[in-house]
Amino acid sequence: MTDIPEIRDTVLQYVVQEYLEDDQARVTYDTALISGGYVDSFSMVSLKRFLEHHYQISIPNELASAEAFDSVTKIAALVHELLRQA
Amino acid sequence: MLTSASYEQCCHSFRWSDVERELGYTPGGALNIGWHCSDRICAAGKGAKVALVWEGLAGEPRRYTFDDLRLASNTVGAFLRSLQVAAGDRVCLFMDRIPELYLAFLGVLKIGAVVQPLFSAFGEESLRVRLADAATTTIITQRKHLPKVRRIAGALPCLARIIVVDHDGGAALQPREVAFTLDACAPVRDFTVCPTTAESASVLHYTSGTTGQPKGVQHVHASLLTHAITAQWVLDLAERDIYWCTADPGWVTGTSYGIIGPWCRGITQCVMDKGFSATAWYTFVEKHKISVWYSAPTAIRSLMQAGDAEVTRHDLSSLRHLASVGEPLNAEAVMWSQRVFGKPFHDTYWQTETGGIMIANYPGMHVKPGSMGKPFPGITAAVLDERTGAVLGAPQAIGMIAFKPGWPAMMRGYWNNARAYAEKFRNGWYVTGDRARVDEDGYFWFVGRNDDVINAGGHLVSPFEVESVLLEHPAVAESAVVSKPDAINMEVVKAFVALKAGHLPGSGLELELMNYVRKKLSSIAMPQEITFVDALPRTRSGKIMRRLLRAQEWGVEAGDTSTLESD
């Protein structure tokens, strides 16, 4: 099964590539993505779709909250848990 | 204060000339919003009063007094003049909610140029279309948005200057680009403000319609009169208030009531430049002792979703008056607000085209939860029969919301689009495109729009724009875009897509199309869901029947389908 560090790297790379225009922006595993304004609530849907497509999982809407998606670390934990349950 | 008892009397006695007198404006004389929001307040002895408290992602809040506003806007104005930016030029502000955005807004107006604020999350196509339409000569932006601007600059021959407010001397600037660091400039103390008149162009906001490209809504300096009086009577702003308007100045609320309304009255306002979270918002209210809060239903519903416990963790006793705008405020949200804050959110209704608040629930009046409220004194409002255009006088009759033209903040036209402007009027009324009913007490109740425009979280999205971008994708043969219900945003964008031969539907392509629209237009315009279909429903004449698809999404009757091609 994919481990958390690997998920973290994949998600961080995707976030930087897709949502950040500023190549000088410093985004880390723990940067606040939603409350920090890097990813807005509308864009969150495409991030959720990416995770579902890439990891072939289904993320229930009740788990796809702004809090659960607020950092790469939190996202990786959520994805890891869903993969574990699959 | 407007109360239920005094409302009729205020409507009867209201005169715009009284507002003119209060603002020291003599008809026919000079009128400049930039000057009124800074120099005039300083001249009244309030130069040392805090005008702006700004808080970003990190660090301590920054504070600017009204004298700081005056000097900074002078400095911006002088810099623009040094670059030969002239009165009447369109100057786009393409920035996040950083202090420079607010200061440049006043500076551009002070030289008589036209401010064109654009939402910084716009994708390159949204940006290009709006800059090309307005023949914008100058854009003021941040380093982080520069790559986006550079990608389209070649297609914008009128764009002569790209001003970067936070260039750190790192990557080299390209032709047309110029660095401007406000903090590093010597403040300009003596500045000749352009003597604009009431009818001089001031702000150009773009809005989306069902068909065609977005339209530039042209406002003038006279709009100040509307903003000043509604800020007082509707938002209840008074000398000692600390005010927070959560709207981004890329949209009309963020300029009319996030800049002009409070500052022309000398009110302290706070700005938070970071993403949404209930904790962050309540902390902001508590920390800055916000007393008047103007927000949007989408945000209020998000706060509701965060739960009551989060409210109780904060001291929100500073809150005195709450108001809302952008989309209909549902009754549940009003009642929730009453329960958790001890006061209701007061819904207000207006549009980019009206420039200022037209219908509202007033501070001293009885609030009917779910109602839009009553017309502002000085405004004549009615609902019109959709077929004949006649005024519907009977209570509860549903018709189109319309206003008698003549209020100061009313748009003076759509930029370069006289025909679209003329189409907004019927029988001497400005017709909004929204439908409502009026109850026995004169309260307006929103019913819906009478077109296909999607109101996603308070932002209008043109289905035509989204469909056009989808069609540019090599896999898409045809598309139809409609609204879909959403618990938080009221409605969001949903796309139906038929693919070209050789392309297969799937989650990978769905994601690709979502990101394609997001980057070209904006995240708000991005379909939150895409359904792949073999073909779209069409009339026998070939027109896509969006109505049918929308009805399917909302679970309502589709109405007359006799013209459906497959019938």
Structure characterization notes:
The complex is a heterodimer of chains A (86) and B (567). Chain A has helices at residues 4-19, 44-55, 72-85. Chain A is mainly alpha-helical and 86 residues long. Chain A has one domain (4-20, 28-85): Orthogonal Bundle (Non-ribosomal Peptide Synthetase Peptidyl Carrier Protein, Chain A). In chain A, helix 1 crosses helix 3. The mean pLDDT of chain A is 92. The radius of gyration of chain B is 23 Å and the shape is globular. The termini of chain B are far apart. Chain B folds into two domains: 7-436, ANL, N-terminal domain (Rossmann fold), CATH 3.40.50; 454-554, GMP Synthetase, Chain A, domain 3 (2-Layer Sandwich). Chain B is built from 18 helices and 27 strands. In chain B, the strands form six sheets. A nine-stranded mixed β-sheet of chain B has the order 2-1-11-10-12-13-14-15-16, sandwiched between helices. A five-stranded parallel β-sheet of chain B has the order 4-3-5-6-7, with helices on one face. In chain B, strands 17, 18, 20, 21 and 22 form a five-stranded antiparallel β-sheet that branches. The longest helix of chain B has 17 residues, at 66-82. In chain B, 31% of the residues lie in helices and 23% in strands. In chain B, helix 4 packs antiparallel against helix 5 (66-82) and helix 7 (124-134) crosses helix 8. Chain B is an alpha/beta fold and 567 residues long. Classes of the chains: A mainly alpha (86), B alpha/beta (567). The interface between A and B is medium-sized, with 27 and 33 residues.
